[in-house]
């Protein structure tokens, strides 16, 4: 029995349970067929009555009856296969996978034209066959739709002087080359849309191009996926950039099997963009081995939008103030989520920090030091958190400053309990009080209240920072005096304190006694210290300023006042100031 006969027999059998739901499994075969025919006739008469309201065409009937639709499709398949001599696979594809063409065709077919539907289901097929006999269709329409193009996409591709596919020999030749090579029929439309010239290639040209990809070492199944996702690779000779990409992939350990497993024919790929991403990550300091492991564990980093999302993430991290070393760490410790989701989470966390009124400088610090954490968290909204914790934005902001890892506990889907405010405040105050008392601060004095209000952190953390200053070279008494003058110097980690003091003493040549007199200097950022003090050093050498200006005066004034009062005192001052600023910013980004 032919494939077509089997299809039609199967379709006939499927009518029985559809039209005879009341029949049971014990009914005889003959009764089933009789009952089925009776109900089919009743059904068609009902639809025929309905069609009077809709102009008598099959379009509306097919929408209401799967039986009508199947019979009309069978007639169309028979027309394409027997009348137009298409291969059975193509005839079936063009009759069943072309909903827009099929609907437009049936709207033109009048079922009442051949006897009012008295012939049952066969009348539907006869009506379609009769219409096609006297009204040949433009075969390019169902062909283009069957290969995955919508009417709006293929309308400009319809030839003006041709109706029958067989008249375009090269189109069919190259179409069959792709089908036989393993490209799914419904994916060929994308190739036609993006590389139309391929379907005008002379006999044997497309086969040789496909073979040239296999000559690079690619399996036929991989080549089929590659050209289905990147049709432009079929233009001209083998794309040189594609060859370079394959060589680079091979160098970093990405195998062809990995490519075949992870590239998707649903997507389009820009191989040049992916190559640039590999070079960017190499310049970032990742070795070939690290790159191979990174892409093996996280394919979307390379393949999602051809790496453009990763480029976007890289730019965001730099924009948020992350150093190159921080960015490198983010990629080396990338969490097991898609790069798009990671980037969205990072942006949402940034919006969260802005919404709770966190200063820009603090946001930069948190993003720079906790990028992986922020990218892994899908946070609750600020409003819902405030409700759950029973606190305001200021309190939220303070909590995140003290411990950014809390954000992980505030992710969607996690339970958040209200803060035990009074108990927590008393505990923190008690720890700070014990620490300050151990240093000799007397409770209820101005110095004590000032230090208690300004110092942030737990008692243990404050003690570590205090010990750090002592270990640097200050005496215990000197550190206490420094704290009375500027308690905020303990609001930094021990590493930051060591780094600032080391720069002030070793790089700028000042002494610890200068810091003891002006302890607030430790609170300023290193870029500010570098810029102001190196500028002052140059101005002193040029004799443009007083050689013994107070450090606190130099550092506390705003940039505008500093430029007006000191930088502009020398004719070449503004130029040196700008050059120095660029050098310092460049050093900070390394």
TrEMBL record:
What Gene Ontology cellular component terms go with this record? chloroplast
Which biological process annotations from GO are given for this protein?
Answer: chloroplast organization; DNA-templated transcription termination
The UniProt similarity line reads:
Belongs to the mTERF family.
Q: Which SMART domains match?
A: Mterf (SM00733)
Q: Which Pfam families match?
A: mTERF
| Superkingdom field | Eukaryota
Gene Ontology molecular function, alphabetical? nucleic acid binding
UniProt keyword terms in alphabetical order: Transcription, Transcription regulation, Transcription termination, Transit peptide
Q: State the taxonomy lineage.
A: Eukaryota, Viridiplantae, Streptophyta, Embryophyta, Tracheophyta
**This protein's name:** Uncharacterized protein
Q: Which organism is it from?
A: Erythranthe guttata
What InterPro entries does this protein map onto? MTERF (IPR003690), MTERF_sf (IPR038538)
């Amino acid at each position: 029995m032919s494939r077509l006969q089997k299809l039609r027999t199967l379709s006939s059998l499927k009518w029985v349970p559809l039209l005879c739901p009341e029949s049971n499994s014990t009914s005889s075969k003959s009764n089933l067929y009789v009952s089925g025919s009776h109900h089919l006739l009743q059904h068609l008469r009902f639809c025929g009555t309905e069609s009077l309201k809709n102009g008598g065409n099959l379009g509306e009937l097919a929408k209401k009856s799967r039986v009508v639709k199947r019979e009309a499709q069978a007639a169309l398949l028979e027309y394409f296969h027997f009348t137009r001599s298409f291969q059975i696979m193509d005839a079936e594809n063009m009759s069943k996978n072309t909903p827009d063409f099929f609907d437009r065709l049936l709207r033109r077919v009048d079922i009442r034209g051949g006897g009012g539907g008295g012939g049952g289901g066969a009348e539907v097929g006869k009506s379609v066959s009769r219409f096609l006999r006297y009204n040949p269709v433009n075969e390019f329409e169902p062909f283009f739709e069957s290969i995955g193009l919508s009417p709006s996409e293929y309308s400009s591709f319809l030839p003006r002087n041709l109706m029958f596919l067989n008249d375009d020999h090269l189109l069919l030749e190259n179409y069959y080359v792709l089908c036989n090579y393993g490209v799914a029929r419904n994916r060929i439309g994308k190739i036609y849309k993006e590389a139309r010239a391929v379907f005008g290639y002379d006999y044997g040209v497309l086969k040789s191009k496909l073979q040239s990809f296999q000559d690079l070492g690619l399996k036929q199944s991989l080549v089929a996926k590659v050209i289905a996702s990147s049709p432009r690779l079929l233009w001209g000779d083998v794309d040189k950039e594609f060859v370079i990409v394959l060589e680079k992939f091979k160098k970093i350990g990405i195998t062809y099997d990995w490519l075949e497993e992870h590239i998707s024919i649903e997507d389009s790929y820009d191989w040049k963009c992916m190559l640039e991403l590999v070079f960017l990550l190499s310049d970032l300091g990742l070795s070939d081995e690290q790159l191979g492991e990174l892409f093996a564990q996280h394919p979307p980093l390379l393949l999602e939008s051809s790496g453009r999302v990763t480029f976007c993430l890289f730019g965001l991290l730099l924009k948020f103030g992350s150093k190159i070393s921080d960015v490198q760490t983010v990629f080396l410790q990338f969490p097991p989520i898609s790069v798009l989701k990671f980037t969205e989470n990072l942006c949402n966390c940034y919006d969260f920090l802005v919404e709770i009124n966190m200063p820009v400088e603090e946001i930069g610090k948190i993003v720079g030091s906790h990028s992986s954490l922020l990218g892994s968290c899908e946070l609750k909204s600020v409003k819902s958190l405030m409700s759950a914790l029973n606190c305001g934005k200021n309190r939220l902001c303070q909590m995140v400053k003290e411990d950014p890892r809390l954000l992980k506990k505030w992710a969607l889907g996690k339970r958040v309990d209200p803060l035990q405010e009074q108990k927590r405040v008393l505990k923190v105050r008690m720890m700070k009080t014990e620490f300050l008392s151990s240093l000799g601060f007397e409770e209820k004095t101005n110095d004590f209240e000032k230090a208690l209000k300004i110092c942030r952190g737990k008692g243990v953390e404050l003690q570590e920072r205090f010990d750090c200053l002592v270990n640097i070279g200050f005496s215990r008494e000197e550190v206490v005096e420094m704290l009375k003058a500027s308690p905020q110097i303990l609001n930094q980690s021990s590493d930051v304190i060591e780094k600032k003091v080391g720069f002030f003493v070793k790089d700028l040549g000042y002494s610890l006694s200068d810091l003891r007199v002006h302890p607030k200097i430790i609170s300023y950022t290193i870029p500010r210290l570098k810029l102001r003090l190196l500028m002052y050093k140059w101005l002193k050498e040029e004799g443009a300023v007083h050689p013994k200006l107070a450090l606190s005066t130099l550092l506390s004034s705003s940039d505008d006042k500093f430029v007006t009062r000191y930088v502009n005192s020398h004719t070449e001052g503004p130029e040196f100031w700008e050059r120095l600023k660029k050098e310092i910013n460049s050093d900070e980004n390394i």
